[in-house]
Amino acid sequence: MSDVAIERDAVVMRARQITKTYGATRALKGVDFEIRSGAVTVLFGENGAGKSTLMKILSGVETPTSGILELDGRELQLVSTVDAAEHGIAIIHQELSLCPNLSIRDNIYMGRELVHGGIVVDDRTEGVRTRELMARLEEQLDPRTLVADLRLGQQQVVEIARALAGDARVLIMDEPTSALSGNEVEVLFRLIRELTDSGVAIVYISHHLEEALEIADHAVVFRDGELVAKGERDAIDIAWVISNMVGRSADDLSPELRDEFGEIALSLRNVTVADPSNPTRLAVDDLSLDVRAGEIVCLYGLMGAGRTELLEALAGRAPIQRGTVAVGGRELRGESIADRIAMGLALVPEDRQRDGLVQTMSVGENSSLASLIAYVRGFWIGDRRERQAVEKGIADVRVKTSGPTAPITSLSGGNQQKVVIGKVLMTEPDVILLDEPSRGIDVGAKGEIFALMAREARRGLAVLFATSEVSEALGVSNRVVVMSKGRIVREFDPKNATREDLMIASGEATEEELTGSAHR
Amino acid sequence: MNAMTTQHAEPTIAKPAPDPKRPSRSVDIWSLLMEGRAFIALILLVIVFASLSDSFLTMNNLITMTKHVAYNAILALGMLFVILKGGIDLSVGSTVGLSGVVAGTLLQGWQLDLFDIVAFPQVWVVVIAALAVGTLVGAVNGVLVTRFNVAPFIATLGMLYVARGAALLISNGTTYPRLAGSAELGNQGFLLIGGGRILGIPTAIWIMVVFALIAVFVLRKTPFGRWVYATGGNERAAELSGVPVKKVKMRVYIISGFCAATTGLIISSELTSAAPQLGETFELNAIAAVVIGGAALTGGRGNVRGVLIGAFVIGFLSDGLVLLGVSTFWQITIKGAVIILAVMLDQAQQRIKRSKNAALAAADRQSSRQAPQADN
Q1: Per the CB < 8 Å rule, is B300 touching A361?
Q2: Number of A:B CB contacts under 8 A?
């Protein structure tokens, strides 16, 4: 422990022996944690490791079961986020919490409107300050623009501006870059440096390990509700982070893959898809690709590269404007989603909560939803047939549950994802599309999901999956297809490709940046 | 506030963690009480009214009250499908009136000006025509919602007016007073629908029972039933799983319209007259029955048993209060309070459920991390 407090690195806020229990579950087990002024403290950890709980406590969303918070050496009790904000502690949440029906200005001053004489909102001053804030964030936007009209990345910038408007001394950022493009991330990082130079303490959480390491001054790693490791910027690297996060050495995502494939199972020719949020733009532009039976093809690319749009169009959610798609040699002609599932083409969607699960239903009902028709005799569902299929399906993907009647919401993210995959596998597909299959699940479950994917490929399924994580692209595929701006820009054999190759091809980083960062 | 906060108070420091999958007994009894709260309320109602009035628990009164319950229950069963899907049908009250008027106008002679004759169709034709009209109203609702993306509240609100207007136009605002038909025209028998008895029990009650059984079967045993729940629970996920969401939506409104037309036939037969005003505000009673029965207005949650209990609570409550001579004004007020109370209890129950599930999910996360399996 280096408690040598230089002026800029003084401890502003400290958590002592914080515990938090939810019923029988201990989310935090006596955590000591320090936040230093003028520095970026990065928190690493899997989902459920306790970092989000700690952030909720630091920002007044939750109160600790035991333990003490200190601000400037004095004990502090936070009862609400408003309370925290008054102490200069602000949080930028992972999920955007903006009102799309209001303007940028009104969002930024929501709940702390500037008023004339206690009655009338001072629109003008708010507007001027908003403009200043947005200029600082390098977004030239009219403060009166509706948030609904902004791109996701711009909305994230508004969220950040809102935290800044409160003159925060401690700024907590929970996955602030998840919706940002490469350029926007750069701007954000410059801004973070500016803020730390002026003495603001920043706590930064990200699943994007490389990115988070780049900005870190201090790093701490959480596992199972405990702070298991801490280190200074110069002393740590990705391997250190991963091994501490997992509690064992990294590199566990490399299931056995086939190297001989069958017939072409999915064939795309000149596929073009309009951007659903802006129909004049093309989300997928003249894309051609074949996937063979038993092959795992990875679509790698940044957010906005068109991966999701492509997969959703293939599944039948959105229309394909031009080009042809053939499944097992049969050309698609605008079939419904149900018809495509019957043809053997099914999608595991990106957003599990929004598109994958029916939260009001049980594990079993969710599992059988897509294949229900197969269990029907006459007019009704054969109970036994369905039960047997569900039990087999659940066991097949190794969902850990007390039984098919358990509510789906009683499962962890990883197990929920297995249910979604199980549901799709129960339709007996020939081609399976997976959009960010590891999103929001922890490393252990991630390994299981990919092992499952590889097993299905070995059984002859054609797999096309999209990811924005380099390690997944290289670790679990037979072929990596890099997408950028709706087009395929490069193809790699993962055996002969490096992380840098992929990042350069996707436009995530330039060659100079990568060599530059290696020298640092 | 977050659902998890309900468990704050419990000081779990070092004692061995209880298995969260097996909640303690006290929790079980509590949630059982919550689960059966509508039924408990119904029993309490019966006990209170029986102790206050000698005539409440007589066979005759029970049958009369149940008959009244049936009118609302049949509407509510149709409403249940719509609400499970995540919609609402405000047009059912007007459909009740419209189907009665259609039956009335056909039974009293259908003026065919073109041929200068008056047609007197047989009763079965009348019944089918009235049901068809109700189904048509449902179909229009369905088309508005699925094809033109009109919000269900607005679409069915519009149809509430349109159907009522149609009833007034057809009848010219007057009541058809004689629905008995006559022997020489061969159109007798309509009055048996609402006035007849089978094994001493009014037909309306039989129809309620049959409809309820069919609804249970459809919701629990057919793919369509599962699809209704799935669509109401998460439309996007249902659609991506291949559920024909639009077809499902269309059908639930048709079912609701059909149920409303059936109610219209039963009541006008019972009253032996068809008034265009029949069924005003019935939609609200139907919604109340569904809600008291524990269904979520957001969709995806609810069942037939709950709806029936809800209809009984509302029906017994109003008839019981009448029996006690409580003023109509108080009846209305009490009914409103009961509905609000039901929804508040429902919220509390959902909160308990959510926090239980969240605790299970958290335990699941931990266990999966403690025993990481390296497999492939």
Answers
A1: yes
A2: 179
